[in-house]
Amino acid sequence: MAGTSKRSTSPHASRSSSPKASPCEMFGYVGIEAVLDQLKIKAMKTGFEFNIMVVGRSGLGKSTMVNTLFKSKVWKSSPVNKLGPLPQTLQLQSVTHTIEEKGVKLKLTVTDTPGFGDQINNDKCWDPILNYINDQYERYLQEEVLITRQHHIPDTRVHICVYFVPPTGHCLRPLDIEFLKRLCRVVNVVPVIARADSLTLEERESFRWQIQEDLKNNGIYVYPQKCFDEDSNDKTLNDKIREKIPFAVVGADREHLVNGKCVLGRKTKWGIIEVENMAHCEFPLLRDLLIRSHMQDLKDITHNVHYENYRVHRLNESHLLTKGAGWVTLSPPTRRNTGGSSRGQRWNRDESENAC
Amino acid sequence: MAVAVGRPNNEDLRNLSLSGHVGFDSLPDQLVNKSTSQGFCFNILCVGETGIGKSTLMDTLFNTKFESDPATHNEPGVRLKARSYELQESNVRLKLTIVDTVGFGDQINKDDSYKPIVEYIDAQFEAYLQEELKIKRSLFNYHDTRIHACLYFIAPTGHSLKSLDLVTMKKLDSKVNIIPIIAKADTIAKNELHRFKSKIMSELVSNGVQIYQFPTDEETVAEINATMSVHLPFAVVGSTEEVKIGNKMAKARQYPWGVVQVENENHCDFVKLREMLIRVNMEDLREQTHTRHYELYRRCKLEEMGFKDTDPDSKPFSLQETYEAKRNEFLGELQKKEEEMRQMFVMRVKEKEAELKEAEKDLHEKFDLLKRTHQEEKKKVEDKKKELEEEVGNFQKKKAATQLLQSQAQQAGAQQTKKDKDKKNFFFM
């Protein structure tokens, strides 16, 4: 395996740039690329963490979707008793599991929000959710500023928030818009059209288009955000994804026999809706985005952008916070008012170029 | 509307069985792809006497020629010279920084030789800490300059470690991963080498020097690391010149009595060093530097600065208070500096004024002096002139008087002569 030595002219050279580094040609194989394997081995030994939050009105199939995504019964029992009365208050519930696939260990935390949007007066129903997300950032920050810190700070920060839009077929409701506006600044948000089996393909397309318009008009930047595209490859890949957002998904955790194969699907009188069939619904796109291709990117953006934003704010405001006992909960409205200064460097730089 | 936030109730972490392929087994690959696009940093510090073969070994290790001129032996002290290079192999970009200790071991008094090295290592930790403590920081973009591995070159005396070596290694062992190597190993015979190695290792142990331990906790690398550890310190030979061995060209050193092949494991441990340093443990070296040495430095530095971890109840406040204290301290210092500068400015202005006044006074004095001398001279000249005029006047008078006298005398003389003449004439008649 003769080492091909190239001058490094990659566009990322500017990322970690030092003014005095000179490119060097190597005359033979050294073995530097072995560091990739070393990295992989170390990562597989420590394991990975992933935290996902699902938000939406009850009955949209959030729990089922999570079960379908991770092909297991994530919730031992439904967090809300389906037969009982709707909860009077918004409660967040988390459950953590360790799953393993081909030697890769993943600590998965799923946070559900039963009761969201179910009240008659849903004003400020996003507050508990925002508080929860900020609390996770706070926890991480507290660990990070310790003098004696742990080797590996447990990461409970929400990496992705999947927002379930009810399939009305018209446009986003005021509640959706308010929620998405606030959340997209703090966490990665991916909206999906829930229970898409109630819409025909044409209805889906027009609904999708309408939602994209609504998002654009309200300045809501969902994942993958345009301003974080690193290079042209990323851009083309993410553009394709952005065209399809929001994905029209269907969740199912039962298997049925179709053409001799066992597939996950919903059985109705007029046919079986196959969850993993692209012709039926866009669940595979969601799964690929969240798990197979962008999971690491989600974590990186949460760590490098959202967490840093929170940290900047927290440290700047620290002298304003009053002393009290226990946790200091930051109320989102204070931060909203500080507008542009609440965004991270990357966000700031690209905001001027074009709307994300 | 009453809103309650349910504290996340973590059920016990249980292993969930998957009923199908989910796909997160691609996570390590995703991670690796991200890392390759960012590139890797690796910083090696070479500590050893001048001429022991540090630059040659680096050239041999990385199969390239890093340009540098050999150092002189006349350095007044030890200084560190860092050079960065960008290497690329397949899709891995490595930003390699090699730090050299110039002048190490050359001075007559080597008491302070280790100090510049320790200062340099601390400075890199400090830079990283400063970046980490900033409010607006960009750690993912940061060019890591912390030293990941320190190759300590031991001179091949064949006896034991020098005291300079022991002292230096002892000072460095809590700050950096030390890998001791025996340089120019082709000058030691095989049996001597074995004794030398055990002597060195026992000296290190008895002096409590913590060298880098190759990790043995993962099955994949445990075995190879364990076998290699036995051969510490590695006896290496470096060479960038190639000699024809058999029908291949290989890196070697040619002597009249034979050829020492660098990559021949029977001749020296170069291959082992390369395996351990690059191919097996590069990532572990980086990780140890960050999680152990850097954390230790950070802990000491923060404690020094007065930060404390208080009990859980007041954790949010220690953050507030300490940052506020820092801010106040900083502002206070700023004010103090401003005051100092202002005072210094005033003082300087005063000094300058005084100087100018002095100069002015001098000038006035000089002028006065000049004027006086000028007047005196003038007076003198006038006096002389008067004298001269007097003299001239006297002279004229005298001249007039003499002329008168003369003319009188002449007349008298003329009469007398006439008389005489008449007399004469009278007689002659």
Provide a descriptive summary of the structure in words.
- The complex is a heterodimer of chains A (356) and B (429).
- By secondary structure, chain A is α/β, with parallel strands linked by helices.
- Chain A has a single domain (35-77, 86-315), classed as Rossmann fold (3-Layer(aba) Sandwich).
- Chain A has 10 helices and 10 strands.
- In chain A, the strands form 2 sheets. A 6-stranded mixed sheet of chain A has the order 3-4-2-5-6-7, sandwiched between helices.
- Chain A starts with 20 loop residues before the first strand and ends in a 5-residue tail after the last helix.
- By secondary structure, chain B is of the alpha/beta class.
- Chain B has 2 domains: 36-305, Rossmann fold (3-Layer(aba) Sandwich), CATH 3.40.50.300; 326-398.
- Chain B has a 6-stranded mixed sheet with strand order 3-4-2-5-6-7, with helices on both faces.
- The radius of gyration of chain B is 48 Å and the shape is elongated.
- The N and C termini of chain B lie far apart (184 Å).
- The chains are: A alpha/beta (356), B alpha/beta (429).
- The interface between A and B is large, with 115 and 98 residues.
- Chain A: Keywords: Cell cycle, Cell division, Cytoplasm, Cytoskeleton, GTP-binding, Nucleotide-binding.
- Chain A: It is found in: Cytoplasm, Cytoskeleton.
Give the helix tally of chain B: 9
Sheet with most strands: strand arrangement of chain A: 3-4-2-5-6-7
CATH class label of chain A: Alpha Beta
Largest sheet of chain B: 6 strands, mixed
